[in-house]
Automatic annotation (TrEMBL), chains A, B:
Residues 167-347 form the S-Me-THD-like C-terminal domain. It comes from the Bacteria. Residues 11-164 form the S-Me-THD N-terminal domain. It holds the Pfam family S-Me-THD_N. It comes from Mycetocola miduiensis. InterPro entries: S-Me-THD-like_C, S-Me-THD_C_sf, S-Me-THD_N, S-Me-THD_N_sf. This is DUF917 domain-containing protein. SUPFAM superfamilies: CV3147-like.
């Protein structure tokens, strides 16, 4: 059933999106500001479940690309948010009928709300990942052969580009260097697909889930209950670590926020390795959960999600492992988003501690 | 009067273009191969003087962008050459009527011949600089307010992009990083202009001049006459140095071939500083001629032009200084292409040894 995003739903939705964003996808507060402003200016946004999207719909994803460290300081204007959609409509020669989220994340779940409001279009209850990943080809539509291009990008100065590339990795490569040159954050739109393609390739109901998680954390806090337990239950995951952040190393390089954080528990130590998102969690040097499954860091008492760029010395945190969409565990998907792709020498560890048998290494592929 | 480029004219034209290319613009032999192949495949190309271009013509420049060091190893296919023109036609919603050269240079005077042949369009007898410069905004049309964008770029793999930027420097910045990511050489097309704009903003008759210079060098060699004297006369320049190349330093960085070469004369030493093109010539440490005037290096006996990537230890060379189009000496133009822009701490020295009084420095602009 369709539902409506009103300004009062934004804080919960953005909070839940930051939970599923696994540290990436940008600051939920910042992203929420833009969405709330757009709703007040242009009216509420209708959210359509995947099953209700017509077969012949023209669906575009809208997202912010860049380092979250920069995004939080460079919130786009509504003009910048809609510019790539208009550029793509001109390039496609067709009017867009639905907006979709490419990923779930503090900014990348709320920017599409702003875009849908400003464009007067419905937003699909779903996204391309069910979580956040750092590179643009890392969406389930890529696995279904859906082209990222034509892909449009725009900056706050008014520069716009449209790419038509031979595959989604080349879209990422060219858009990424343009993004870095344009100031490390741009608005993008692409992955044009029909309604039937969207139903097959997207993760359904993710905006509903974000809202439920985000409202649940606030309600538990209000009721003086444990704000983390409900999130763990909704995600079907497990809380596997609690402790204090004692070290954070972070650098914004080649357009990403890369780094690691050390968290000291009662008698073990957790190391979080991230590139925009948390990708590997090691306890006492042994990987316990890795990409593509979700590693979620929450503030100990409030249950508020902490993004990778928000990690600070002294924070007391609880860490959750949760399953990703099962499609991320195919051999083809693991080659694209498994630990090996990011340079970590470990097989994929699922949230429950099991290890994916299949991960094509460079050696196996050769 | 219109004239026709036939395959037998290509070697002379490419040689002359390499002379005016002041060391940049790519290898004339390589560029000539592609043009000759296109003419044989698609027929001869009509060259139209600027005065005969209709006011309402739709003119596009076509060029190769990148480091000449890479261009010589990665000659584009005809498909790649025409891809950005087709992308721009789609973006502009209009059919192109005339092709123009953005600059004069071994590759960038011959690639547009190939494009015109493959597209079945006339080529304008003129170009955007009257020489070669390393960055795409460095054309006289920029001084006339003509936008580089929409600008299309394409690579040999089939990737294509179209940029719409706020000014021509941003076109350069974004296209350059894309170019580097795509392998340090791409085909570009842009600077859409009307016939009346082309007449105002381009340098006229430059293809005719290239042909005359190139044929003159070959004829003089044939007649055992001095092959350099005729070039000096045609350019209204002067030969200011002769000697032997004793040192060449060259690096391909940030998409350019940058470096310096030392030439030892009878009792003085010449230092050539280049970035794709020769930009500063110093004799015994003192600048004697700089960008925007032309610094041309010819092989001592044959008069063959030597590109910056063709410079080798032991070559005996003669070096010519020649005037650029006078419009390059305005204050606005010098801010864009004068020695200061390239990081050389010297005012512009004209070919005859006089110094441009006006050159806005960073201090003056601040």
């Amino acid at each position: 059933m369709s539902w409506t995003i009103t300004p009062d739903l934004i804080p919960g939705l953005a909070r839940g999106a930051a939970v599923l964003g696994t540290g990436g996808g940008g600051d939920p507060y910042i992203g929420g500001l833009l969405a709330a402003q757009a709703l007040r200016q242009h009216g509420d946004v209708t959210v359509v479940p995947l099953r209700d999207v017509p077969d012949d719909a023209v669906v575009l994803t809208v997202a912010m690309m860049g380092a979250p460290t920069v995004m939080v300081e460079k919130l786009p204007s509504l003009d910048e948010v809609v510019a790539p959609v208009h550029a793509l409509e001109a390039s496609l020669g067709r009017a867009v009928t639905h907006i979709a989220c490419a990923e779930v994340g503090g900014v990348n779940s709320t920017i599409p709300i702003a875009a849908a409001a400003a464009l007067g279009l419905p937003l699909i209850d779903g996204d391309g990942m069910g979580r956040a990943f750092p590179e643009l080809q890392m969406v389930l539509p890529t696995l279904y052969g859906i082209n990222a291009s034509p892909l449009a990008f725009s900056d706050e100065k008014g520069n716009v580009g449209v790419l038509n590339t031979i595959d989604n990795s080349w879209t990422e490569r060219i858009a990424r260097v343009a993004c870095v040159e344009m100031g490390c954050s741009v608005m993008i739109s692409g992955f044009a697909m029909s309604g039937s393609q969207a139903r097959e390739a997207l993760v359904g109901d993710s905006l509903s889930l974000c809202s439920e998680i985000g409202e649940g954390i606030a309600a538990a806090r209000e009721a003086k209950a444990d704000p983390v337990a409900d999130t763990v239950r909704l995600l079907g995951g497990r809380e596997f670590f609690a402790g204090k952040v004692v070290d954070v190393q972070r650098a914004t390089t080649t357009g990403f926020a890369r780094g690691r954080a050390r968290v000291e528990g009662a008698d073990t130590t957790l190391e979080l390795l991230f590139q925009n998102e948390h990708l590997v969690a090691e306890v006492d040097g042994n990987p316990v959960v890795t990409t593509p499954d979700l590693i979620i860091v929450l503030e100990h008492d409030s249950g508020e999600p902490i993004t990778t760029e928000g990690l600070r010395y002294g924070q007391r945190v609880r860490v959750i492992a949760a399953p990703s969409d099962e499609r991320w565990h195919s051999a083809q998907a693991l080659a694209m988003v498994g630990p090996g792709y990011f340079g970590y020498d470990t097989p994929s560890h699922r949230f429950d501690g099991s290890v994916d048998a299949v991960e094509p290494s460079d050696e196996a592929a050769a």
